[in-house]
Amino acid sequence: MISTPKRVLIPKNGVDYRGKVVLAPMVRSGELPSRLLALKYGADLVWGPETVDKSMIGTNKNFNPLTSTIDFTRFPSNSSRPTPKDQKESVIYKLHPTKESRRLIFQLGTSCPTIAVEAAKLVASDVAGIDVNAGCPKPFSTTGGMGAALLQTPELLASILEALVKEVGEVYEIGISVKIRLLETPERTEALVKRLCQTGITGLTVHCRTTPMRPRERAIRDQLRMIGCICREAGVACLMNGDVANRDQALKLAEEYGVDGAMIATAAEANSSCFRTESDGGLLPWKEVVTEYMNIAVEVDNRWGNTKFLLSQLMPGKAEAAKRCQQAKNYRQVCEILELDDLYDKARDLDERLGITQRAGQWVEKAKKQNQSAKAAGRHSREHQDNDEDHHSILSQRGITAVSALTV
Known about the structure:
With 408 residues, the protein is α/β, with parallel strands linked by helices. 41% of the residues lie in helices and 15% in strands. The strands form 2 sheets. Strands 1-2-7-8-9-10-11-12 form an 8-stranded parallel β-barrel, surrounded by 6 helices. The chain has a 3-stranded antiparallel β-sheet with strand order 4-5-6, with no helix packed on it. Helix 3 runs parallel beside helix 5, helix 6 runs parallel beside helix 7 (224-234) and helix 13 (331-338) packs antiparallel against helix 14. Residues 381-408 have low confidence and may be disordered.
């Protein structure tokens, strides 16, 4: 008689990680537009960026009718000066309740069970799970005892997970999970995974690198089978992370190493269509992906700085449009550069809401001067050239670029 594999019960409002290819939690690249783009191209679940527990505490939860999003906002708390009357609250976390909430995992940065529970309760009713970050090696996380620092305090990490399972998971009927890295030896990794699987979690993700390792170093998969086996015996879903390039490879690796699914990070940051299978056409051209990203970013009023960063990741660095976009000061200018005419009016309105319209003043004047110079050069060139195509060729060879006049 074949025995049925043990499985931890998935709560009513939670989600099973098994068989899933998901977007990894990434600072900047895990904000709302990136998550929605990944879901559009086939990601089964998406992790938000690590959000520190204390930054969530004290936020106001508001439904934004303009973007149909839920925004967690607060005034900056890092200054002893009085808050100016006209100062706006900062958005700490933004999610889309209809397009992602049942597929969104909120990743929490924490080093204290009590504070972790307080922060998790604020968002628990709007997500499918809470994941504790125990793998980030960055100093901003580890210096506070969070992230990969928790790997050196396994009992503290276990107590955080147990508190979240009891006071958040059971109450809100969602899953609690954890993301770790490999420890210095297989024996230490084995002991840690066994302990964490006893806390009541529904899922565990292992980044196949040790804490000192950086993304450019090849992922270590020697311990994956052992980790997958421990999780399977405990009934806990196990995901792998590290050097996963696309959906097809993710599923192949999961089967090869006996785990339940995989996370994609760097590849998704470069081209979110990596979640498409080869049978569905595989990777899409960057221009198509960038156009879709821009539509989503404008739709949800994404922070301009974050959008500009993501454009730098999604566009080939040598592309002329990429170079010009990095000089842009707002959404409207990007629409001009990429010729996104259908999005121009919405982008202009968003610039006004974000207060970045005036920031473009110098850029606009410079563009106008370049445009006038290009036109003057064109008139001079036409006096000596009969063929219009030859005229454009000569301008190009001289490095003169005609810039469309921008509406102020």
